[in-house]
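Why do we care about 3D structure at all? Because function follows from shape, and shape follows, mostly, from sequence. That is the central idea of this module. The next example makes it concrete: a single protein chain, its amino acid sequence, and then its structure expressed as tokens.
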Amino acid sequence: EKFFLAMVQPPERPAPEEFPPREYVFILDVSGSMYGFPLDVSKELLVSLLEGLRETDRFNIIYFSGGAEVYSRSSQSATPEHIAAALSFLENQQGSGGTELLQALQKAMTLNPAEGYARSFCIFTDGYVGVEAQTFDYIRNNLGQANFFAFGIGSSVNRHLIEGMAPVGYGEPFFA
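And the structure:
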């Protein structure tokens, strides 16, 4: 009989240059229930995340309420110029309309992924939707396309939706 034993241990904390390039698609709820404080918090959080990207990373933004609107046809490199243009576009978003989360996720999946990039979808919403089960199924059926990070925004978040989306999509839930 022949046996082989190998033990591989990752570094305790990898250096930033060891991170693979990443593509982030930020999916932002701009529906009526997000008007005011929740949308302001979402914008602040998104600004912070965009400014924290490396220039080797890529990003795109999808705004949704009754429909879904894509910031750019393809993900942009995270250069200061591209981030400034995205932030300018972000400032004009107001809260109104319904909450078509599933349509926004479907729109995000139709975007061509950046070749050679680890892809993450970051969803910002208060979660006032009636499609929790369908959302979980959709994410589950599209694993391998991206990781999902759910940000619950506001004082009365649908925790069932936020805490359900993240683990189904191999991500983490956050609340602000």
